[in-house]
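Forgive a beginner's question, but would it be possible to get a protein, spelled out as residues, together with the matching C-alpha cells, please?
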Amino acid sequence: MIKFVLSGIKPTGIPTLGNYLGALKNFVKLQNEMQDYEFLLFIADMHAITVYQDPKELKQNIKNLAALYLACGLNTDNLTLFVQSEVKEHVELGYIMQSITYMGELERMTQYKDKKQKQAHGISSALFTYPSLMAADILLYDAKYVPVGDDQMQHLELTRDLANRFNNRYGETFTVPEPLVSKKGSRIMDLQDPTKKMAKSEEENKGCIFLLDPPSVIRKKIKSAVTDSEAKIYYDKENKPGISNLMTIYSSITDLSYEEIENKYKDKGYGDFKKDLAEIVVEEISKVQKEFEKWYDSKELKQILYEGKCRASMFARSKMKKIKKLIGIGY
C-alpha cells in the first residue's frame, strides 16, 4: 500500500521566504528523510478563489508556484505535483465534507475570524466553508502525514474529527492524518511587524521577502527589519520578537542553533548581524531563482503537471467511487 505525505499551497501571489522556510524547504528535507513515502503536493487554486483573484494574475501565480515547487529542490522520483482544480474529486468530496461539518466548528476557525475582521464586506460562503474542502484534499488520498505550521493545526484537527465522524457513521473509510510540524522555521514573522506572520497576501510588502525579489531588495528589507533598542543578539521571542525572528531565519538556512548564533555575535551589533543575514538569504534565494528560470517555461514542467494530474485523478476516482457507494448516492 502506498503511503502518502500531502500538502498544498495557495497561488495567491509570489511565495515568501516564510513559505520557503516553513514549507517548501521542509518538503525537500522530508523527502530525503521519508524516501518510502510518496509526496502529493498540489497548487490549491480552488482555495485561492475564496476571495477575488484577477484571472490573469491567478493563472500566472499557478505557473510561478509550480516552477518554484521544483526550483526548491524537490525530488521528482517520489513526487506527484498537480493543480487542485484539475482533479474534480476535491470539490466533490469537499461538498460531502460540508454535509458532516457543523456550523459551530467552522465559526471557531481562527483564520476565518481573522479574515472576517480584515474583510468587512462581501465575505464569501466559500471563505467560511473552505476547511471542509481542505479536509477533502487530505482525506481523498488517505494521506498519513500532513506537514503543517502552527497556524494550520486547527484545520488539521477538524480534518481528523471529520475523518472519525465519517468512519463512525459509514464504517472505516478514511485514514486519520497525523501532523508533521517543522521544529525550525515553521512560522517566519513579518520583518516590520514581528507579531504577525510573514504573508504574501499583505498589501504592505516591506516586511515580506518574496522568492523572486532581486538581491538589492532582499538586502534592503533585512537591513530595515524592526529590532529593538537593546542591540544585543539573543533569542527571546516574547521580549525581543524582531531579532528573534531574524535569528529564526538565520538558523533555518544555516542549521546553526540559536546558542551558536548568539555566541558568534556576542561582541557584535545588529548592523553586522543584519549584513551577514542579508547575504545568507540572498545566496539561498539566488539558488532558487536560478532553478526557477530553468523550470519556468520547460516542457518538463508541463509533463510533470500532466502526469501529476493523471496520477492524482486515478487515486481520487477510486476513492470517490467507494465513498459514494457507502453514503448511498449515485445510480
The beta strands are 4-9, 38-43, 79-83, 145-148, 178-181. The radius of gyration is 21 Å. Residues 185 and 252 are 5 Å apart (CA to CA).
